[in-house]
Amino acid sequence: MNHENLQAAAHQEMLGNGFHPDFPPQVETQVAAIRAAVPVAPGPAVKDLRNLLWSSIDNDSSRDLDQIEYAERQPDGSTRVLVGVADVDGSVPKGSPIDLHAADEGVSVYTGVETFPMLPEELSTGLTSLNEDADRPSVIIDISVTADGVIQSGQAYRAVVKNRAQLTYSHVGPWLERKGEAPPKVSASADLQNQLKLQDDVAQRMRAARFKSGALAIDSIETTPTMMNGQVTGLQTMLKNRATELIEDFMIAANEVIARLLSSSGVASIRRVVKTPERWPRIVELAAALGEKLPATPDSLALNNFLTKRKDVDPVHAPDLSLAIVKLMGPGEYVVERPGDPPQGHFGLAVHDYTHATAPNRRYADLVTQRLVKWGTEAYSAGELDVIARNCTLREDTARKVERIMKKRIAAVALSNRIGEVFKGVVTGVTPKGTFVRIVDPPAEGRVVRGEQGLDVGDQVLVKLLDTDAQRGFIDFGRAS
Questions:
Q1: DSSP string for 372-383
Q2: How far apart are CA 187 and CA 190, in angstroms?
Q3: How many helices (H) and strands (E) does the chain have?
Q4: b/e for 284-322, b at 16 or more Cβ within 10 A?
Q5: CA-CA distance, 434 to 208, in Å (whole number)?
Q6: Rounded to an integer, what distance in angstroms lies between the CA atom of residue 87 and that of residue 271?
Q7: Count of other CB atoms within 10 angstroms of residue 349
Q8: How wide is the angle at C-alpha 130 spanned by C-alphas 70 and 237, nearest 5°?
């Protein structure tokens, strides 16, 4: 199965799962009007922050840049962190053809062989993307962080910004960790070096403060296919580093600040919640099997201490343990919080107030939140938000399904010449449809079709690769003796 066939399969999966990957004509008409519009200029309601040393850090292949960052040390020892978010609402009004299409799609879908954007690419990677050296309107999330990494206060306002350096995780991370050379743009500017080191410093302090409060140190493994002459030749693992942590910590802080601001303003809003794990007893069993004791009732701080210890003791299998914990915690969802409602919180992040506000080019919930920040109660009724929250949850769940089946197809191609080999793995799911395992090297998930009896989520097993079917995305394993 070559690259073109995989792309065709991805397109068919999108259609089969209710997405509309092809934009209707009225969307293209609106794009043309946006292209011809006069750019937003600084004025009484829009600050001019183009003089700041903004930068972005993202994946090597990312072209839809939703946010840029800047930090300043304050005289009292605190740090001011600015996150500039693409002002998508300024180009895509509520109820317009692009908005209606985005509302239906809910999210951009990343299949590994093709990206299906929520917004037309001319917007998401161009006119509304915070591209290098381009003047762009944005919504600034201005955060005050204490010397010990605690979010003290925050505000939001509109501004015109300019990204001075588009950077990548793969190059900035090793440099921050002193394991690699600075990328050319960084080595050419002492000011940018100091700026990134300051951002890294405050991010690490915020991370430490979150972990102290019980946030979970989840180790995830992302993969991308390696290609040669249009053929999938393998799977490349993308691990977290200091640069990914920097952006993660800044985005968590920004989303928390926006949630607090909307609450204090009496505005109903969409929250991102992860409820208390229903399968906590199984998490306790996993810990006990590794010689650790967790409390009988859910405790995020105790769980994080356990995960952190396991990462130190067994870093090779830490991502597998994290994956099992994530599966047992269950997926996040969008809910509407009205003024006066008790916050449902985010168990994994150990925060009571949390929303999604930093990726309006690729998540519809973030675009809606941006409108709530800019326009308050005039933007949406609580009833409208209920409908949007349900659809965004459904669409994100469906997008994960599409991405999962395409990852399986890609992995099936990559593993097709390794039938009969034995791999180390961890059980990731036990459902009426079967028992599923994720192997470590290369990272791929398949079904255990022989010897699956008695297995449960989190069990570490040896499995033999029995068969692959790239057309159906099947990878079949048998339990090795």
A1: HHHHGGGT--HH
A2: 7
A3: 13, 17
A4: bebbeeeebebeeebebebbbbbbeebbeeeeebbbbbb
A5: 39
A6: 20
A7: 21
A8: 85
pLDDT mean over 256-261: 95
Name the band, by pLDDT with cuts 50, 70 and 90, for residue 350.
low
Q: What is the mean pLDDT of the chain?
A: 91
d(CA 92, CA 119): 9
Whole-prediction pTM: 0.86
Please answer whether residues 419 and 412 qualify as being in contact, where contact means their C-beta atoms are separated by less than 8 angstroms: no
Residue carrying the six token digits 């993969």: 223
**Beta-strand pair 474-479/444-450:** parallel
Picking from 477, 405, 404, the residue whose alpha carbon sits closest to that of residue 437 is 477
Whether the CB-CB separation of 435 and 455 falls below 8 Å is answered with: yes
Q: How many CB atoms lie within 10 A of CB 405?
A: 18
Q: Worst-scoring range by mean pLDDT, 17-21, 85-89, 410-414, 464-468?
A: 410-414
Contacts of 306 (CB under 8 A, 6+ apart): 287, 292, 294
Which one is predicted more confidently, 300 or 475?
A: 475
Give the integer Cα–Cα distance in Å for 339 and 361: 27
Dihedral, 19, 21, 25, 30 alpha carbons, nearest 10: 90
Tokens of 266: 């009496």
Q: Which of 19-33, 205-219, 281-295 has the lowest mean pLDDT?
A: 205-219
Rounded distance between C-alpha atoms, residue 433 and residue 414, angstroms: 24
